[in-house]
């Protein structure tokens, strides 16, 4: 649709669960001139984004920034902490969990994937009791790391990471806890230190509202200790050189200068106390998710995530009725209304679509997205039980965003 010399009129509605729409403030920050990454100004920028990301991860320990997509940070977490042939326990919540498992296997790890039968794991969050049972059975402590996805972007399920931490503790198992919060961070509540996570992995193009291109590892002291003995080969991903130079705000190789301008702006926006700081961010996305779920319920369609407590504040996966190809509905919506929705991934291809409510949203951008969905579903011949648009409007009207906009005259 979009070529270099053609763009449809009006704004494109980018409602896929990442990349999310980049706010103008961030685009303007990115447009500043590129500076010398070894020059005197850069160190201040480097220090500022590293400190900002510690606040976003809610950690006092180091954060590493890579010029790479989230997949690179997945690999970095494993190669810095593990050795060839190490056993790792992973949990299949959906497509992204399976991709991380594949990556671990390719690195030469003995990656074990805990999965519920019949694809049930793709409809729920991590069942921490299963992890606890598996770890209790591992009396010889062969398992060196437990890897889970915080927000499974392929299904719309957010897992209880605190419960996974408790499972490790209950089993008195020394494995490291590695968590992918690539789409969770800065939209769903996430606490690296308080939840005892050893490596948290994230990326720029989801809750952080940046274009794709940078990703993160947040570390724990135990992860750093593990990295001193870990044997998997690493150079580009190695934490030691990064941390050494990061101390003065610099990087061992050329960082994405302009994206870091954007990251500084994103941290300012997310941490701004006038809009409630991180707690405000989490509350806003919870409320938007409730509005979208009210719409899906009114349409009479099924949610991909059937476990109420795990339904994601980041995105909502909507199952289309039998016989309706979700991708055809998505294509129609894109063509008619210039609205992009997320496709069904892996085993869910054609069975469902995903509505993103991460990053830079407000009630009206979401209402527009829901209007596009409703019109498209009807045009595709899907019989809807009722109007999701009306249900979401009613939900947003009845549940005002606390302190949303400063009112003039008060
Ligand atoms: C987006 C995403 C990834 C992959 O990140 P890339 O930036 O595409 O490499 C991995 N895990 C989750 C949960 C994601 O949402």
Describe this structure in words.
This protein is α/β, with parallel strands linked by helices. It has two domains: 13-20 and 275-398, Aspartate Aminotransferase, domain 1 (Alpha-Beta Complex); 24-271, Type I PLP-dependent aspartate aminotransferase-like (Major domain) (Aspartate Aminotransferase, domain 2), CATH 3.40.640.10. The protein contains 13 helices and 14 strands. Helix 10 (277-299) runs parallel beside helix 12 (363-379) and helix 12 (363-379) runs antiparallel to helix 13. It is globular and about 60 Å long. Residues 18, 69-71, 96, 149, 153, 180, 182-183, 203, 206, 212 line the site of pyridoxal-5'-phosphate. Substrate binds at residue 354.
Strand content: 5-15%
Helix content: 40-55%
Summarize model confidence as the mean pLDDT: 96
Instruction: Provide the succession of SSEs.
Output: EHHEHEHEHEEEHEEEHHHHEEHEEHH
CATH class of the largest domain: Alpha Beta
Bound compounds, each kind once, are: pyridoxal-5'-phosphate
The separation of the N and C termini measures 46 Å
The Cα radius of gyration reads 21 Å
Q: How many helical stretches?
A: 13
Q: Count of DSSP E strands?
A: 14
**Largest sheet, strands/sense/barrel:** 7 strands, mixed
Brief synopsis:
By secondary structure, this protein is an alpha/beta fold. It has helices at residues 24-30, 40-57, 70-81, 95-106, 128-137, 161-170, 221-229, 239-246, 257-271, 277-299, 326-337, 363-379, 388-398, and strands at residues 13-14, 63-66, 87-91, 110-114, 143-149, 151-152, 157-158, 176-180, 199-203, 215-219, 302-303, 315-319, 339-340, 352-356.
